[in-house]
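#structure-requests
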Amino acid sequence: MYKKYKLKNNLELDFDDQKHIYYFNGQKVESVTGICNKGIPKPQLINWLIYTPIREIKNAINNILDNSDTLDRVTLERIIINATNKTDKIKDDAGLVGGVVHSLIEDFLLGKKIPVQSDKAVVNCFNLFLDWWNKQEYKVIELEKKIFSKKYNYAGTLDLVLEDKNKNFILADIKTSNHISFDYILQLNAYKYAYEEETKSKISKGLIIRLPKNDNKIEVKELPLNKKMFNAFLGAKYMIIAMENNN
């Protein structure tokens, strides 16, 4: 389903909600998350993708051997299929939890009633945010805002722009991941430059608010916002375009 968003500089951005694709004047626009996912090396993720199935196979075979069960061809094939699908299942579930947590936080900040949640990961993340938020003195300026840089031709959706007691604007991004990775820095810088281009309002600093699914300690970290990191983001964008044009 296409949704049309009129930005503060009177530009119109179209968004395909199902395919998560942005369009400007009928032309597809690369997204910030897409650029960060495809254009930036992620050695930790690559290692996880390699070794998770290996550990899954090893554990399954050891379990069969420990119980003196038969390891025939069908059993082995099933072990391999389950192992190769393991990372996708983990990523899908993590994405599901992250999406629900984002929607709950959005509803809370909009003053909506929050229904009781049963999933332990969702409850943990949401409660960590509430505990942190209730100790802050921020005013919400933007919430789940669509952004578009006409100058550099990319789009995205930022989580939060907050105003502190000194009237400074703070860009905040909410994560439910296991750690803060380098691509988050580039993501924040991309949002900052597009937001400033559109609104002419200055972002003073950027925060990552990491809400762990299985830990009771929130991680709030200020990340650098500067031209060097923004250029690194643009480099990732141009690399993606070069690879696509080479196919």
